[in-house]
Amino acid sequence: MNPQQDINQQIEEEYQRFIEFGELLDRQTRKYLVRYLQNKLEPDAFTIPDLNDQYYQYFTKALDDLFEIDGLMKITEGNQKITRQIILDTLYWLRKSYQKARSKNPYDSELKRLEGWTVTPLHVFEDRWHFLINFLRKNYSKDQLDIDFYENRFKNILSTGKIKDLDEANRNKLELLLTDLLAQWDALLNAKILEYQLQKLEEEKEAFTETVEAKVDEYLKLTDLVKPFTEYLGSYWDMSRSLWEDTSFDVLKEYDDLLRDEASIRELSELLGQLREAEIEMEEESYEKTIIRQEWVSDEHSKAEIVGVHDSDDLNNLLSSEAALLGDEDTETLFLKKFAEKNLMTFRYEDRKLVKSEDKFVEVAQRIKMKEKGPFIICVDTSESMMGRPEQIAKVLCLGILKMAVRENRRAYLINFSIGIKTFDLYNVANSIDEIANFLRMSFHGGTDISLPLYEALNQLRSNDYQDADVLVVSDFIMYRVDKEVLKDVKYFQQNKGTQFHSLTLSDDPNSKILEYFDTNWVYDPKKKGIIKELSRGLGEIRNRY
Fold first, then answer.
1. What is the number of domains present in the chain?
2. CA gyration radius for the chain?
3. Residue 49's closest CA among 66, 31, 25, 62?
4. Contact, 382 vs 443, CB < 8 A?
5. From CA 238, how far away is CA 273, in angstroms rounded?
6. Contact 259, 470 (CB under 8 A)
7. Which sign does the torsion angle of CA 168, 173, 178, 182 carry?
8. Which of 80, 103, 126 represents a domain boundary (last residue)?
9. What pLDDT digit, counting tens, does each position of 245-296 carry?
10. Of 347, 345, 348, 349, which Cα lies nearest the Cα of 323?
């Protein structure tokens, strides 16, 4: 069973669980509510009856309001995880809001009073009826309940004597009058309870709708923030269709800090756009060639010269030996058989004609690939001194290297370092929205310790995946010490394994003594105008050197 089928089965199980055990209205009404919800996701999938039930009508109207949230249907299309989450949340809200509205209301004491009067014997009513009249007069207006009418009727009937002395006709009148009064009270009380419950349901619906609306807004905002980066890498992963299919609303909790840092992410996307433009300018030059040629070609349909014989059913060009078969009854059948099978020997003619043709093709200027290029190990300084523009340049550079790595089918490993390290396999970043978000929110704080990332880089060089890699360190190189053992191992790999260690400096005041240990140094001033174009050229150099 594939993941989509598994989610569909889970959704169907949730529907059935709600219908059987939803504790909302009755089973048949729950079934119709489920179908109404299904129709929201798949219009006209079911025919729904028009039920005359106020709760059902309320819930269907609430579902209408919920699915009118801007962007909700767009998100659910093609995303089974979010669809399942919406369904689960909605069924939970239907069940819990109904239970909450019915479990407690301010009319409980009055409801108990009503229940008490419905079981009060007539002989007790005789001495207590005026308490009932006073209570109803206090709680209901004359427009709602004509208390004076019932009071006068009770007085008239009871003025003739005690209930035990009443004749059957007056006793029946009294019972009928009391039953009618209690029925009207019951109707008025239930109307108040229903109004209260619907009000509570409305409050629950508004809270739920606001929650879903906020999730949708944040989700759309997150996709909009990340979109420039996914599009930049998308030509190699085609992520526009698949990136978000395996992502649910739960992602919003994890990316709250990314959403809060919206301004810097948008600045970063603008830099990425500039890098994209710079890359386009420096793309390999391609040009179209057109070659026009003339040549003689054979034309079998132009009869100018006999060039041989061939099998066919062409009677106009029949050889005489074949025609002779028709002269004898014994061979006539053979002739007809050969004709039907197109096996008659006939003359073949052809002529030649001069034909002009044009061939167009594209040539691309390329360097000859001397050897298979190895993977990248990139150490990015995320210390406090790199905050701001250097941080953005470093991230854009990593995305440029990532794109280059995948285009050339090369692995790329990122080591994010400050006073500690955090690693990403960049080769997998573009396949997961989680990894892209983690990359974008790389923390830039704390001090700088370059020994730790170099230790990790050396460990990767000893592994199978990255043993042929070269190492690039991106930093402002405002640091003052490196572990001696690390430098000894760096020299060993340089001298014995042919590993090259490169540095890319994003400051105008690096520690030159540390830079001496690197084979190649690129220096970029983040404040300099045109830094992105220079960075694009530098990426080209990195690609050709590695």
1. 3
2. 43
3. 31
4. yes
5. 18
6. no
7. positive
8. 103
9. 445 555 555 555 545 555 555 554 555 555 555 555 555 444 455 555 656 5
10. 345
Quick: pLDDT tens for 178-206: 999 999 999 999 888 888 888 888 888 89
Among 164, 146, 545, CA closest to 367? 545
| Same domain flag for 380 and 358 | no
Report the amino acid identity of residue 203.
E
Torsion of CA 215, 219, 221, 223, to 10 degrees: 180
Per-residue pLDDT of 518-538, as tens digits, reads 988 877 776 666 665 666 666
What pLDDT shows up at residue 77? 80
Boundary-marking domain end, from 305, 329, 364: 364
Say if CB 456 and CB 473 are below 8 A apart. no
The residue range of the domain holding 307 is 289-364
The predicted model gives 115-131 an average pLDDT of: 86
Strands 286-299 and 344-364: antiparallel
Please tell me whether residues 23 and 82 are part of one structural domain: yes
Distance, CA of 427 to CA of 233 (rounded, Å): 11
Q: Taken in order 231, 233, 235, 236, is the CA torsion positive or negative?
A: negative
Q: Return the ∠ at Cα 33 (arms to 209 and 189), rounded to 5°.
A: 80
In a domain, 305, yes or no: yes
Q: What is the mean pLDDT of residues 393-410?
A: 71
Residues 52-72 have a mean pLDDT of: 90
Coil, helix or strand at residue 289: strand
Asked if the structure places residue 45 within a domain, the reply is: yes
pLDDT at 235 over 60: no
Structure token digits, residue 252: 């919003």
pTM of the model: 0.52
Q: For residues 295 and 388, state if they share a domain.
A: no
How many Å apart are CA 128 and CA 158, to the nearest integer?
Answer: 12
User: Are the C-beta atoms of residues 503 and 477 closer than 8 Å to each other?
Assistant: yes
Q: Is the dihedral of CA 240, 246, 252, 255 positive or negative?
A: negative
For residue 60, the model assigns a pLDDT of: 92
> Is residue 539 situated within a structural domain?
yes
Q: Is 413 found in the same domain as 505?
A: yes
Distance CA 48, CA 70 (A): 25
Which position has the higher pLDDT, 58 or 315?
58
Q: Is the same domain home to 452 and 329?
A: no
Is residue 510 located within the same domain as residue 484? yes
Lowest mean pLDDT among 89-98, 110-119, 250-259, 407-416: 250-259
Query: How high is the pLDDT of residue 370?
Result: 38
- Centroid of chain to Cα 532: 31
